[in-house]
Design goal:
The protein has about 220 residues and is mainly alpha-helical. It has ten helices and three strands; from the N terminus they run αβααββααααααα. A three-stranded antiparallel β-sheet has the order 1-3-2.
């Protein structure tokens, strides 16, 4: 029974992690045991175990006598997420080996972003961007790396929620994702890594500035 409950809790954690990465649960959201347990058809104990797993991944926080909430990131979290992304994503591209590479899923993520942009669905653009980086890491063919980055990219999505102008943040990366894809299609792994490193550095700068405006700006005490 314990093994069954644990494996079910892991599957529930997978679902909730994906929902966070897709933007369904903004930072600060209280997660209702009754609503989520009922929707997924799992026991309260199983759901609590899933919450515990995601708390360990820094996606949720438990507040005594209040419940479980989606975590609110601070500026250092944003910087650390990008340090991790740079280490992992650049290493994946560097270690790809000889072309050709299996790029269909990466191309689909680029197309998904373009479609969302034409509809001016900037939440959809940010979701497509998450998919792009998840598929980029998947090129390594490593279940461990995939698992690590699923959590990191879900955390990244939490930072996106507090940005006041998502179009300005996300739109420039549509073309940059395509540039990386084109470089990999051409078998230019070194060029793709260089583009990616610059991309991630710029992403940190832009997101940190946007995050500071949204989160760290002191409020007027009279407000």
């Amino acid at each position: 029974m314990l093994l069954g409950r644990t494996s079910t809790a892991e599957r529930v954690a997978d679902i909730l992690r994906d929902r966070i990465a897709e933007g369904y649960f903004p930072p600060g959201t209280r997660l209702s045991e009754e609503a989520i347990g009922g929707a997924l058809g799992v026991s309260r104990n199983t759901l609590r175990e899933a919450f515990r797993l995601l708390t360990h991944e820094r996606l949720l926080v438990h507040e005594l006598n209040r419940g479980v909430f989606v975590r609110v990131l601070d500026a250092e979290d944003v910087a650390d997420i990008h340090r991790t992304r740079r280490l992992v994503e650049c290493a994946v591209v560097r270690g790809l080996g000889q072309p050709p590479y299996a790029l269909d899923a990466l191309a689909a993520a680029v197309a998904m972003g373009d479609t969302a942009a034409r509809a001016e669905d900037w939440k959809g653009v940010s979701t497509a961007n998450i998919h792009f980086h998840r598929e980029l890491v998947a090129l390594a063919g490593s279940a461990r790396t995939d698992e690590l980055m699923r959590g990191v990219l879900a955390e990244l999505r939490l930072a996106f929620h507090v940005v006041d102008d998502p179009r300005t943040l996300h739109e420039p990366y549509l073309a940059r994702n395509r540039e990386i894809l084109d470089a990999l299609r051409a078998g230019e792994r070194t060029a793709a890594e260089r583009l990616l490193a610059r991309y991630l550095d710029d992403s940190l700068t832009r997101l940190s500035a946007a995050y500071a405006r949204a989160v760290d700006t002191p409020r007027d005490p009279s407000e």
